[in-house]
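Q: Could you write out the predicted structure for this multi-component system? I'm mainly interested in how the pieces pack against one another.
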Amino acid sequence: MAAGTISRLDSPLVRPVRRATQDRWWVRALLLTVALGFLGLFLIVPLVAVFVEAFRKGAAAYFAAFAESDARAAIKLTLLATGISVPLNLVFGVAASWAITKFSFPGKSLLITLIDLPFAVSPVISGLIYVLMFGAQGWFGPWLIEHDYKIIFAVPGIVLATTFVTFPFVARELIPLMQAQGSEEEQAAITLGANGWQTFWRVTVPNIKWGLFYGVILCNARAMGEFGAVSVVSGHIRGETNTLPLHVEILYNEYNYAAAFAVASLLALLALVTLFLKSFVEWQHARSRREPSSSS
Amino acid sequence: MSIAALNIRKSFGNYTALSGVDLNVPSGKLVALLGPSGSGKTTLLRIIAGLEQADPGSGRIQFHGEDVTDVPPVKRGVGFVFQHYALFRHMTVFDNVAFGLKVRRSRDRPSKAEIAERVNKLLKLVQLEELAHRFASQLSGGQRQRVALARALAIEPKVLLLDEPFGALDAKVRKELRRWLRRLHEEVHLTTVFVTHDQEEALEIADQVVIMNQAKVEQVGTPQEVYDHPASPFVYQFLGNVNVFREESLALAGNGAYFRPGALVAGGLVYVRPHDVEVIPHEAGMDGIPAILRYVHAAGPQARLTLEQVQTRELVEAEISRVELERMRLTVNDLVLLRLRQTRSFEQDYAI
């Protein structure tokens, strides 16, 4: 009786107060189920499938897929294209963000818009642009043939297409960061007698390093995984102009599933490493904001 | 090292920040550039530092008689303290202060031990020795300000320029720091210019105050000179509260025996500071401007009274001591007489 009284008396107080922003339990459950279910169905399951398929014929077949000379050539070409386009975009990204955030000049907003162009344009179109410019029938085609330069269906074309598709990544990361930081620290460095080079390396770079690193990781992942633009300009010459994603396609079309998935698993692994690095960088960055690390 | 700015003009697009400004800072003095926001004071400071260029064809900047107009900021040898300090956020306090020494060319660069010694000496000067290994984000506003100052002093600048040095601090820290800056100035005797919009700050610590308004210099003088002899209605009003009387209304009130005018100009305005308004209880036959006490604000050592003139119905602010107020036993809506101890009028007819 006593207990009943207490519970009745207390009940209006004990009942958890629902905050305005807190949804009912079934709404939360539904949303979580939808989100996680979607993630599982469209991301986790395919990712697992890649590795399962890759190892279906055993580890020996898996590693044999990489021993093949065409696969090795594809890996080499991918590394080469990435190795050229990522540093190029790194330099471009830093220069563009510096220009956009530290000076005012005519055409600034046009530059900001143009940086986003590769995001807006379908990669296939990006590839086609280069074919139209440098292909045999293109604007510079006759001149290139005359001087025996090969761009389309050759390595330079692949590098160009990769660079084009990936050039927003670094700049997009740096512009908001540098805008937020302003240029007072650089001005302070200048009044203290630092020249432009010292100011850049000792003040600007340490302030943007995590943003820069993040941009480079994303740029790298996209450069290695790019399919559309590269496919248009590559010509699919085995052992010569095939990158990893193109190699996967060829193997798959030849019903060589185990090898196709083995190579695909390499790219998937790259994605996982990228995600890991990304989280690591975000964590580092958050930490350095809270309490600057002594790493500098 | 004296600083001279001669006929400096600067505009940003259509906006004129400085229209032909002259400035003379004598060697070893502490000078305040005082003015409301938008008066051009920070722009002038940045032009002296070389962070901003004066409009082409306009005047020159000289340090100790030597023209530095075309010398880049890197080589001007100015210590600049930014309003928001601009400390290097990825460096410790020590590294911030050492920065200016570390970036010197190797033949001018002191040895590591010398740098450490100098930085520690400076940190001692600004009373931050214990915090040498902290980062800027771990310091209070006042501490950051002192780091910024030590960093600027580390390069042994010829002149020290401070942009709103106490602007971002709370009232109490602000007062402490400005006295500290004054003492520091007396120790190092570096020619110093600081920008402020706070007249109390400028009047308290500067040797010389340069009052700026609307891209021009209004008046230059010692704090006492500018306070006692303001050159324009703007200066008068900017340096403290002020009452404005029309001369006719004073003439209307009597023969003028109860106020001692300066050089009065017919039709002019008469300026009186609230503490120069004497309030006495109304008695028949006494000289004075009749007024009614409307409001008493008595928090603090001084009582601020708002009074309404009987003839013109215009309001007057007066400041009298609490003791005096209590002695007179005044209450709201009492009739009183006002006498003006010190007045000032200006030739031009200004619209207030």
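A: Regarding packing and overall arrangement: Residues 1-10, 292-296 of chain A have pLDDT under 50 and may be disordered.
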